Amino acid sequence: MKPEKKWPLRLNIQHFGNTDPADPPADPKGGQNEPPADPPAPNQAEIDRQISKAVQSALDKAQKRFEEEKQQAIADAKKDAEEYAKMSEKERKDAEFQKRLKEIEDRERALNEKQLLSEIESDLKEQALPLSFASALLRLGENEAIKEAITGIKADFDAAVNERVKEELRQETPGAGNARSQTYTRTGMAEKAAKHRLIK
């Protein structure tokens, strides 16, 4: 059988509270008891409107930039056309020839650089050097200078590697004579034991 629990008396606390205080507190703000209202949280429609406004602004800027670039290209083409119109027939042919010649030279230079770069990379592979040196060696331009630089780099690289290997493999030389230079005698051990004895 379980003993019954006695619950404390339930009181209506509202009964004891005053609805109108006898001394109302002095209001320092002059009747403005309301806390400042928080700005309303933006709803999804407001957020969507702001996002679409930002996207539209970015699109307008991109369109404006594109229009400016297009106008610049048109102006450049008109300028070239005016220059060609002012030229005589022979001058136009010479200008076109020079333009084509320059394009051909640029293509030839690019092809030569690619070929030279591939030769440099193959030389570096032969010498077991990193390919990261290729772009720096390409700036030398001449085959003879590049080959001399590769052999110099190889010699310096090998010397540095060998020096590092020697340094890592270096050991201390063992001392001459018996490894135990101190002899342990019975009296020496007895003195040490007495010195380190906990209970005296």
TrEMBL record:
It comes from the Bacteria. Residues 61-95 have a biased composition (Basic and acidic residues). Residues 1-95, 168-200 are annotated as: Disordered. Pfam families: DUF4355 (PF14265). This is DUF4355 domain-containing protein.
